Amino acid sequence: MRKIALIVLIIGGAISVGLQLANRTGSSSIPQELVGIVLPEARPLSPFTLTDHNQAPFDLSRLKGQWTFLFFGYTHCPDICPTALGQLAEVFDGLKGEKEILATTQVLFVSVDPERDRPETLKEYVPYFNPDFIGATGTTEQIQAFSKQLGAVYLLSPDQEGEGNYQVAHTSSFFLINPKGAFYALFQPAHFSPEKITQSYLTMRRLP
Length: 208
Fold this sequence. Notes:
Elements: H1 2-22, E1 38-44, E2 49-52, E3 57-59, E4 67-73, H2 80-94, H3 99-103, E5 105-111, H4 119-125, E6 134-137, H5 140-150, E7 154-156, E8 168-170, E9 174-177, E10 182-187, H6 194-205
Parallel strand pairs: 4-5, 5-6
Antiparallel strand pairs: 1-10, 2-3, 2-6, 4-9, 7-8, 9-10
């Protein structure tokens, strides 16, 4: 039943965001290739507090002035998270020829598994993919409050063996936050190659 509930939550969240994105269809304000990626209206985020992998506060102010690719996951993830961070590393590689854009782009990996993912754990894990990537976590309440703003869902499975071997099912989307600290666009990495994400992102950055 827990697995069924999780599937319903994830599909429901995807449908909700998908419907919002679909409302962009026919809009003349953005190029056709960005329809279905950019939200109808950027959604401002409320203040939040997390802790980064250097044990410094990470709050809304650190999203201001930067474009942020945000991904929710956990370090014990067997496949989705390392693949996603590898894809974002490829996106960063694709931006190397755009120095000004790269300088105002960051990646934030938020762990939804605070029990195992302490800041020191994230410091060993996240920079492996790119030394400029940021890992962050917080209390269960802080993480839930932040993820809820973006419609990101996750669910910890029961620890059957009592040895901390549980898994976490979670949203696999890349959320793009604009320099005003607002949820701006959404990428489903299963449907977008790193090259396509890079090109779409560059198009967004060049919009008037």
